[in-house]
Amino acid sequence: MAADPTPADVQRYIAQGLPCERVEVEGDGRHFFATIVSAEFDGLSRIARHQRVYQALGDKMRAEIHALSMKTLTPSEAAAFAPQGSGAAPTPHHH
């Protein structure tokens, strides 16, 4: 049985399978939370974005990563999350 992956491992797995501008992963070896910014998400629904990330993780998702929550953003959405008070930002997620 392999050791549980670290957040750095998960970050590397995602970055290897998906061209990202930014990937941040927090977690405890069993449950992870990733913030992923990728131009690949442009025009995709939230579900399709998540599927794209699972695709990038491939077998690791089933074998090593037990739970992954994620926030998937395009570069322009990520910019909108920056506090500029434009009013056009997507609904913020609370953690």
Architecture overview:
The longest helix is centred in the middle third of the chain and has 12 residues. The mean pLDDT is 87. 37% of the residues lie in helices and 21% in strands. With 95 residues, it is an alpha+beta fold. The protein has a single domain, classed as GMP Synthetase, Chain A, domain 3, CATH 3.30.300.90. The chain is globular, with a radius of gyration of 14 Å. The termini are far apart.
Could you outline the blueprint of secondary structure elements for this entry?
Blueprint: H1 7-17, E1 22-27, E2 31-37, H2 46-57, H3 59-63, E3 67-73, H4 75-81
Parallel strand pairs: 2-3
Antiparallel strand pairs: 1-2
Helix pairs in contact: 1-2
CATH architecture name: 2-Layer Sandwich
Give the terminus-to-terminus CA distance: 32 Å
Biggest pleated sheet:
3 strands, mixed
Number of domain modules: 1
| Total of DSSP H or I helical runs spanning 4+ residues | 4
Could you list the spans in which at least 5 consecutive residues all have pLDDT below 50?
A: none
